[in-house]
Amino acid sequence: MDFFELINKRYSVRSYLPDEVEDEKIRKILEVARLAPTACNLQAFKIVVAKTEGRKEQLNRIYSRTWFAEAPYMIAVCAVKGKGWVRSDQKSFADVDTAIIMDHIILAATALGLGTCWIGAFDPGAVIDVLNLDKDLEPIVLTPLGYPKGEQTPRRRKTLEELVIYR
Ligand SMILES: Cc1cc2nc3c(=O)[nH]c(=O)nc-3n(C[C@H](O)[C@H](O)[C@H](O)COP(=O)(O)O)c2cc1C
Hints:
Bound molecules: flavin mononucleotide
């Protein structure tokens, strides 16, 4: 699959099969995340890989949709507080860095036939509690990871005319 096919194939998967994900695929996804760029190459992030088996109720405290804990894995990308690049006007790039990491994870997963869904509307306190995160970690984005059940939904996107400004 070439890059453009891959981009078209990715969608937010909100229904998962219980099928196990091969360790080799997890490894490949994590390796792609490791290669992602970060501001000033500071790599101030941690990726938490959580198995969902036997802890679905706990995980649903983080995000209550049942499909969130349906896949065999849930991945959290966290910023390491105070370690990322901060611009001279004090803007922190932690969110940008972690979004790039998650995008790499999501696209690698798609290339391997796996489904994901960006989750931002979670309860951060519950993530810290359920995943027993160290105090220096801030969870920024999450995704389930597993084989999709069902089909890609039609895309709704603004036109290029609405989105692009030429100056
Ligand atoms: C940063 C970010 C946060 C998101 N948070 C959620 C979320 O909490 N719950 C959810 O169901 N989808 C979430 N989404 C998925 C978007 O709703 C979805 O990407 C968008 O509707 C486009 O659909 P598509 O991903 O299928 O192309 C999020 C997406 C992004 C990029």
